[in-house]
Amino acid sequence: MFSTILLTAGGVVGFLVFTALVRSGHFFRTLIYTVVTGNLALLGTAWLGAFSGVLLAVNLFTVAVASILGVPGVLTMVILKLLFGV
């Protein structure tokens, strides 16, 4: 049940991000910028995790979230990690 809700919410967010990219008029430039900055933020967080204690594993899920949602997605994962220890 929970996984279905989570998958549906992820699909809706992905659709909204895709729609915003298309409507911006600079689809590929915006997409590349989002992917690069999101993954740099994820790698920076993973590297600094040794010093701060907030460790985000670099795996397929976290890279996908960082690539699709960018820096806000990485910040959300950090906040969820701090609040719930997920």
Provide a descriptive summary of the structure in words:
The chain is mainly α and 86 residues long. It has one domain (2-84). 84% of the residues lie in helices and 0% in strands. The protein has helices at residues 2-23, 27-52, 60-69, 71-84. The chain is flat. The mean pLDDT is 86.
Envelope shape: flat
Q: Give the strand content.
A: under 5%
Distance between the termini: 19 Å
Please provide the count of β strands.
Answer: 0
Helix percent band: over 70%
The mean pLDDT is 86
Count of domain modules: 1
N-to-C series of helices and strands: HHHH
Most strands sheet: none
The structure class reads mainly alpha
Radius of gyration, in angstroms, nearest whole number: 14 Å
Low-confidence stretches: none
Instruction: Give the count of helical stretches.
Output: 4
Key phrases:
86 residues, mainly alpha, 4 helices, 84% helix
SSE order and pairing:
Layout lengths: L1 H22 L3 H26 L7 H10 L1 H14 L2
What is shown here, in short?
With 86 residues, this protein is an all-alpha fold.
